[in-house]
Amino acid sequence: MQGFFIFEKTIFMKKLLYLLSVVAIVVGCSAEKKQFSKLNASQTNITFANTLFETNKNNYFTYPYMYLGGGVAAGDFNNDGLEDLFFTGNMVPNKLYLNKGDFKFEDISETAGIAGDDRWYAGVTLVDINKDGYLDIYCSVSGEKEPHNNVLYLNNKDNTFSEVAQAYGIDDNGYSMHSTFFDYDKDGDLDLYVANYPPTSFKAPVDYYKYMIENHEAIDSDHLYRNDGETFVDVTEEAGISNFGLSLGVVASDFNNDGYPDLYISNDFNAPDYMYLNNGDGTFTNDILNSFRQTSFFGMGVDASDFNNDGWVDLFQLDMNAADNFRSKANMSSMNPEVFYQSVSLGLHHQYMQNSLQINQGNLNGNSPAFSNVARWGGVSSTDWSWGGIFADFDNDGWKDLYVTNGIRRDVNNKDFYNENRAFFDKMENDPNYKNKEDEVGLLSYLERMPSEKLTNYLYQNNRENGFKNKSMEWGLDEKTFSNGVVYSDLDNDGDLDLVVNNLEDVASVYQNNSINTNSIGFQLIGKNNETPLGTRIHIVADGQYQMQEYNLSRGYLSSVSPRLHFGLGTSTKLEEVIIEWPDGKKTRVENPQVNAYTTVDYNKQTAFFEKEKSLPSLKVFQTVVQKDPFIHEENPYNDFKEEVLLPHKNSTLGPALAVGDLNNDSKQDYIVGGAIGQPASMYIQQNDGTFEKVMVPIFEKDKFYEDLGIQIFDADGDGDQDLYFASGGNEFNEGSQGYEDRFYENLGKLNFRRDTEAIPDTRISGLDVSVNDFDHDGDLDLFVGGRLSPKKYPYPTSSRLLENRSAEGKIQFVDITKEKNPELENIGLVTASEWIDFDGDSWEDLIVVGEWMSIRMFKNNQGTFTEVTNQIYQPEHRGWWFDLKKGDFDQDGDMDLIVGNLGLNYKYQASLDKPFKVYLNDFDKNATYDIVLSYQSDDTEYPVRGRQCSSEQMPAIKEKFKNYNSFASASLEEIYSDKMLAESLKYEITDFSSVYLENNEGTFTAKPLPVEAQYSNINTILIEDVDRDGYLDVILGGNLYNAEVETPRNDASYGLWLKGDGKGNFVAQRARESGLVILGDVRNIEKIEVGKENHLLVAKNNAALQQIRIN
Asked: Nearest-5° angle of CA 168, CA 171, CA 176?
C-alpha cells in the first residue's frame, strides 16, 4: 500500500470559467484571454516594491553593486495548502504575504518578524531546517555597510519567525548573494553552500582574478557548511571548494547522474565559473574546464533542469547581451581580444558575453559530464541585461519552457554617457580636491543623466527540436520593468504555474496563468525523518513521453521556487509510470496517480522500496585508442585580424590535412598528416601489430614552411606505388607568394619521395581541397584543385583548377585545362570541398563544388568537358558556409545522394529567407585597402554586425561621420556606408546555415535538413560508412570552428556525431554517451583506416593531437 494521499485541486473551476467564456464569445463579443494575466496590487494586495534611495553619497557611483536586485520565494509557510510569498528588500523591509486564496494575499511582515534590519538582503532560499514540517527562510546578505551576516528565520508555526542563523552556525559574514541547501555527503541531513561576491573593482585586470584564486582570504571565498545535527560547520577548505569568484548564481544538481549532488557557480566578470563535481567522499573537484567548452562572461543567475527530456540535467546561465541593435551597440561592453586570450591562457576559460544554454551530453570522459552551449540554436542567447532564468512547463504540454527576467536600473555601460562626462569622472577618481566632495559636486545629478530604460521580460516556449520561441507578447507578458528574482508557483491550485517577479523600483509583478484544456500532475514530497528531500528525482512516463524533475529550490536568481514538483501532461489523462528516486538511492513506484491533482508522497510511510539498478558497462560501437606516439598539430601564431580587422574568422588555421593510403606497398594502410607553417608533414607507417611508426621524410622537413591544407595519395604515373599531391594554403603570405605553391612528390619506392616541381603548374593559389578522378576516361587519374581564398582579401573569390594527367614515358605531367574544359571555375569562390558523383546516370562522374559564401555548384561531365547545371537540377540557389560534402546512396534507390556540411544553426550569424546574412567587400574609405562589412537584418532594416569601435579600427572615418555611439547605433547600413558604395561592392548573402541531406531524385536534388543534433555546430568533415553493418549507410560528422573573432563565440558544441541511416534517406542521431563517439576540438578531417582486420577512424584537429578511434 502506498503511503500517500490526494490533495484535490480546483481545476474544475477554471474549466467552468472557460466554458462560460466560450458561451460569452458565442453570445456577444469578447476579447481573447491570453496565457497570462497581470494582476495589479489592488487585486492581490501585494504592494512590495524593491525601491532604492540614492543620494549624492550613496549611489551607483559610490557602490556599483546597487542594482543587483532582490529575490522572491514561494512556499506554504502555514501549511494551509496555499503557497505564500516572501520578498527580499535591499533598502526596504522584506515582506511576507500569506495566500488567502483567489490571488488575495495578506501582508504579515511586521507581526511575522521577518522585515529585517538595515542589512542589504539579496537572495532567499527555503528549507525546513529543524524538520518540524514548517518552512524556514534563509536570507543572503550583501551591501556596502556592516553587518553582512546572513539570517535564518525559523518558523514558529504560528505565522511568526525567530532569527537564529548564529545559533545554527550559518550567519555567514561574506558578501552573500545566494545560497542553496543540499545533502552533499548523503548523511540524511541538509548542508549549505553560500555564494559570495567580494567587492572587486570593475577595472581589475585579468591576472588579478588569477592571483586571487590562488591567494584569497577565507572571507573572499564561497562557503560550504556541513550539517552536523544541531549546528553547521564550515568545511570549505577540507571539501576542496575554497575559491574566489564574483558569484551571482548557484544551483545544486546531480549533473553526472552518479547519485551525488554537484554544484554550478555562476560568476561575474573574468572570475571563472565553477563546476564542482561531488567525489562522494565529502570533497569536490572543480571540473569546469573538462565539462564545459565555454561559459558566459558576465555570469548572472543560473538554473538547472532537464529541458529536453532525456534524463540528464541541463543548465541555463544569464549574461547581458542585447538582441536589439541599438542597445547592443550603445550600451553593451565589447570583447577585448587581448584580455580574452589572456583569460584563456590563465585557465579562466573561454567566456563569452551571451546567455548559455548548456545541453548535458552525458558522461563522455569518465565521471565528467560534457555540455554543449546551444543558446544560439535555442534562440535564447541574447536577452539584454538579464538576471534570472527558470525552466518550468508554463503551457502544460510536457516540455519545460524558459522565463527570463530583464533590465538594469540605469544603462551603466552607456558609452556616450561616460565619454561626455569623462573629464568629470577623471577628476572624481584622481583629483584629491574632489575626494569626498560628492555633495558639493552634486554626484547624483550626474547619475540622473545616465540613460534608463525598462525592458520586457522573456518567456520562451519549448519547441522541442526547433529550440525556443519567444512568446512574451503573445502570452500577455509585455510589461516593462527592471526585474530581478522570479519564481513559479501554482498560487491558486488550478494545475498551472503562475509567475511572481521582484522588480527594482516598481511593485512586484504577479501573473496568473490561464492555461485551459490541458492536464497536469503535481507532487509534494516528505523526506526521510521529515527532512526536506532536496535532490529527489521524479521520473514519469505519459503517453510514451518521458519527463524528469529534480527537487531543488534555489534556482534562477536570488530566489527559491515552489517546493511542489509540477508536470504538464498536455492531453494525457493517464500515466504509465511514476518513479520517485529518493536521495538515499531507494525508489518508490507510485501506482495509479491521480491526474489534475497534487499527490503527497511521504518517504516514512513507504513499504515497497526498491534499489536503483546498476547497469553493467557494455562495449560501445566506438572506442578511442591510446596511441604510442601521436601526431600533434602545432599551429603557427599569426593574427589575421591585424590586417583584416572585421574578418569573421581566421583563415590561417584551417589545417591540418589528412590522407590515408598504402605508402610502402605492404598491403597495410598508412597515413600522412599535414603540418602548419614551420612544422613538417608527418608520415606514419602501419606495423604488423597494428601500431604506427613515424618515418622521417627528408623532403617534408625541407618543405616545412608551407601550410599543408590538402593531401591526396594516389598513383599518378601508373607504376603501382602511391604518389602525393599537397595543396598549400593559409592567409599568412601575400597573394602570389611562393608559400602557396602546391607540391607533387613522386614515390621512388622504399618510402623515398622526390619533389617534382615540373609535374604540376605553378599557380600559387591559397588552396585546401584536392580530389582525384579520371574525369576524361583515359585510364589515368586527374585532379580538381580548389582555391580556398585570396589572401588578405576575404571574401574575394579565387580560382579553382582542373588538372589533366598527361603523364607519359616516365614523365609525370599535369596540365591546367580549366579554361577550355570548365571556365566557370575561374574566380568561382572560396572553395572548401568537392565531390565526383555521377548524378545523371550516364557513367561519367560529374563535379560538385562547395565553399564559403558559395552556392552548391554542380557541373555535368560531358565526356571530359563540363557545363554548369546547378539551376536545372537544384533550385533555389542555396548559398552557405559549406565546409564539406560526401556522397552515398542513402535511400537505396540506385543513385548517389549527398550530405553537405554547413555552418549550422548555433552560431552568432543567423540567416533566413526574409532576413539574409550578408557580406560586402569594397574600399569604402578610399585608402587603397579592402574593407569587410558583415550585415544582418532586424525587422526591415539592415545593420552592420560589428559596432562603432571595431568598425572604426578598420575605417577611421566612421568616427568622424558618427561622433558618438548612439548615432552609430541608430544608423542603418546604408546610412553608414552609403547606397552607392554598397551597390558597387562585392556582395554575397546567405539565407540558410543548415547542414543538409541532398536526395537525388533521378538527377535532380531536394534538400532536407539534417537532424537537429547535426546543427549544433558547423560540419567540417564527413565520413560515410555502414557503422553498425546493418546494410544501410551511416554518416560520421566532425566539426567546430575555434578561430572566430572574440565577439563571436566559437563553435564548439560538437563532440562528433554518428547519424544512423535507415536506408530510406532518414537519419537518427546516436548519443555520444551511448555510442562512444567522442571527438573534442577543432576537427578538420576524419578518415577511415584499416588496422589489421579492424576499421578505425583517424581524426585530425587544429592545434591538437591526432585521435584514433576503433569501430567495434
From this structure: 140
